[in-house]
Amino acid sequence: MIEFDGVEKRFGDHVVLSELSFAVAPGEHVCLIGPSGSGKTTILRLLMTLEKVDAGTITVGGTSLSHMDKGGTLVPADDKHVREVRKRIGMVFQQFNLFPNMTVRGNLIEAPTRVLGLSKEEATARAQELLDLVGLGDRMDSHPTQLSGGQQQRVAIARALAMRPDVLLLDEVTSALDPELVAGVLTLLRDLGASTDITFLCVTHEMGFARDFSDRVMMFDGGRVIEDAAPEKLFTAPEHERTRAFLHAVVDR
Amino acid sequence: MDNLGTFLSVLSQGLPFTIIATVGGIALTIVLSFVAGLALLSSSRTVRIIARVYVEGLRGTSEVVQLFWIFFALPVLVGFQIVPIWAGILVLGLNHGAYGAEIVRGAVQSVPRAQIEGAIALNLTPAQRMRRVVLPQAVVEMLPPFNNLFIQLLKSTALLSFVSINEITRQAQQVLVPRFNPQAFEIFLLLLVMYLVMSLVITAVMRTLERVAAARVGRTPSARSRRQATGAGVA
Question: Which of these, A108, A168, A120, lies nearest to A144 by C-alpha position?
Answer without folding.
Answer: A108
